[in-house]
Prior knowledge:
The chain is α+β, with helices and mostly antiparallel strands and 82 residues long. It has a single domain, classed as Ubiquitin-like (UB roll) (Roll). Helix content is 26%, strand content 28%. It is built from 3 helices and 5 strands. Strands 2-1-5-3-4 form a 5-stranded mixed beta sheet. A hairpin with a 2-residue loop joins strand 3 (53-56) and strand 4 (59-61). The protein is globular and about 30 Å long. The relative contact order is 0.30.
Amino acid sequence: MSVKVLYFAGLKEALGLSAETLELPAGVVTVGALRDWLASNGRAALASAKNLRCAVNQDMAGLDASISEGDEIAFFPPVTGG
């Protein structure tokens, strides 16, 4: 399954990239499984991010949300501004 993963704010800076398209292994079918797989494949900043927010196809989602072929998954830490 191919998906596009987006990284924002501090994650973008920590990982040194804003987006990537990936072919996922068969068992990666939820946002949480994706996060764990990414963290174990060189993106440790995802595992250590506190209060990590996620979205699937621009809709806020929990770690238990399903992902499908062609989905866009975004990871971002909570941010504040003023």
